[in-house]
Amino acid sequence: MQKNKKIITRQQAGEIVRQLQNEGRKVVFTNGCFDILHIGHLELLETARKLGDILIVGLNSDDSVKRLKGTQRPINIESDRARLLAALTVVDNIVIFNEDTPLELIKFIKPDILVKGGDYQPEKIVGGSFVESYGGKVVVFPLVARKSTTDLINKLFQV
What we know:
Elements: E1 7-8, H1 10-22, E2 27-32, H2 39-50, E3 54-60, H3 62-69, H4 78-86, E4 93-97, H5 103-109, E5 113-117, H6 128-133, E6 137-141, H7 149-156
Parallel strand pairs: 1-4, 2-3, 2-5, 3-4, 5-6
């Protein structure tokens, strides 16, 4: 299997972001587990991409997902989740992170715009105050009703 050029390291993401920001371009960042990709994810990613010139997605590693969601998750392994995201034209780059939150990645990348789903209160978005501290924006995308990974998993197991 050939390595996907969209799936990059934290260091590579930092270099790309610095170059683009030096050119006056806007970098958008969002993150998540993206365990079972669904229409809610796609709509968030499409909206996020329209806010700037490049969209970088922080993807929780398998270990991170297990700590956050429990031992039965993730359903799909990180390499598969990353490849699925990379197949989307709206996603420019993916960085896998192992921490429970993307705070360190956000601090390293320093995006111009941070986007999160509507299940988060703006003041509680991890990295939000940091992004705003240097003039960046935090955007909350409304959730797509009844379109979540948890809803899909629950529906699969209904008898």
